[in-house]
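name: query_chain
kind: protein
chains: 1
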Amino acid sequence: MGTTPAPDDAPSGIPQRGGPGPGSALEGTGASAPANPHQDADAPASVSPASSAPVPGRPVRGSAGGRPVMAALDLLGRRWTLRVIWELHRNGAPVGFRDLQRRCDDMSSSVLSTRLTELREAGIAAPTSTAAQPAWHLTALGDDLVTAMGPLLDWSHDWAARR
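structure:
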């Protein structure tokens, strides 16, 4: 087990967070993925206990080193996450919290708040900075994610048609 992502996990030339070296979150720890990585008593001081967003370079389900693909799958696999992303994408305009909650079939406000916090920490969504009541929108990274999911959407339509 190493903390360096496999060569096919990341484009070459881009530094990877959490890789081996001085200051690495896993440097010299021999750490393996805890059963719940968000309750790790030995978490680095820079990670807030309230921070639960899976991000590359931080241990996530299925990867002690926080491989980017595993961090993405961990984040996207959480309940309501894909729906929130979809609803933020639909209009292309910022959406207020209550409106977003209604669009998501009146999901609980605590779950929506948690998902928005995780998406903000992951760099996928952000609140507007000009409104007294912030509205949420996808960042450029969030827009890239929606584009990357296009082939999966196409595949799902083919899958449904073949059944």
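note: The helical segments are 68-76, 81-91, 97-103, 109-121, 140-148, 150-162.
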